[in-house]
Design a protein that fits this description.
13% strand, single chain, membrane, transmembrane helix, 8 helices, 284 residues
């Protein structure tokens, strides 16, 4: 699908180039209307292929996440758990943490202008940064977002499944909250002494998102103070940070640019440039 989409974007760029090169010719050249229609059709077709490709990848991630949980449920004592990271976040941020795509630039005569979106969802970047070394899994409804592989569980069993995942996960990546289920999850991480393998994400200021992160983070710091967590003050650049065993601030890295490579380097930097215990070497 990715190859087909790329060819559609390339053809769209060629149509624009032909129009620009021939528009000065007397009696020749592609009309503006024909150029617009051709580019529009190719762009829609390419986006369709791109969407199908992403959905196909996400279905594979969802299926892999379900297999991870089934392997944990069927494991015998002494079995080595699979390699994965669990993603914890408030459901309210799903699909709303959109950031500017710095790769979306150039002229309409370049294929990359058509191939990239003006904005990206943070979760998709995060899942891509961890792949393929460490699949990112989360509890939720399969297909609700492109990013972490979703595991569908009922309301009656989600706490038990949450416990299975955080016990076996190589790494826990969390956008914290003091409300609802995520607030309860934070309390469990503190009570069970799992802060040592948790990376907290402070989302950066969102240019096109619907969430004003600064006041949300101030309320969050106040709401989690009773749990003993000492969260850093909000910075528009965003941070990935770790807390010590007592919930005190330990280490952080800014998120200067939200790209897969940058996220991978930031997360590696939080572990002294080495993958966490048990992580496969392809992480670097």
């Amino acid at each position: 699908m990715k190859v087909l989409a790329h060819y559609c974007y390339l053809l769209a760029a060629l149509v624009v180039a032909v129009h620009l090169l021939t528009r000065q010719d007397l009696g020749g050249g592609l009309p503006v209307s024909a150029t617009a229609i051709a580019c529009g059709c190719l762009l829609v077709l390419g986006q369709g292929f791109t969407a199908l490709g992403r959905r196909w990848v996400q279905r594979r991630r969802d299926a892999r996440a379900t297999r991870v949980l089934q392997r944990l449920l069927n494991a015998s004592p002494g079995d080595t758990p699979p390699h994965f990271a669990v993603y914890l976040r408030p459901f309210s941020v799903t699909g709303r943490l959109t950031v500017t795509n710095r790769r979306w630039r150039g002229l309409p005569i370049l294929p990359r202008y058509f191939a990239h979106e003006p904005t990206l969802e943070f979760e998709r970047l995060l899942a891509g940064a961890l792949a393929p070394a460490l699949p990112l899994v989360a509890l939720g409804r399969p297909g609700e977002a492109i990013g972490a592989g979703r595991i569908a569980v009922s309301d009656a069993e989600w706490k038990a499944m949450f416990q299975r995942l955080i016990d076996a996960a190589r790494w826990i990546i969390m956008i914290p909250s003091d409300q609802g289920e995520t607030g309860w999850e934070v309390q469990q991480l503190v009570a069970q002494g799992l802060l040592g393998k948790t990376v907290f994400i402070m989302p950066p200021a969102l240019r096109r998102g619907a969430i004003d992160m600064a006041p949300v983070w101030r309320q969050l710091r106040s709401g989690l103070a009773d749990t003993g967590l000492c969260l850093p003050a909000y910075t528009p650049a965003g941070q990935a940070f770790r807390l010590g065993p007592q919930g005190r601030f330990y280490r952080s890295r800014y998120l200067p640019r939200l790209e897969r490579r940058v996220l991978r380097e930031v997360l590696a930097g939080l572990t002294d440039g080495q993958p966490p215990v048990g992580w496969p070497r392809p992480w670097r």
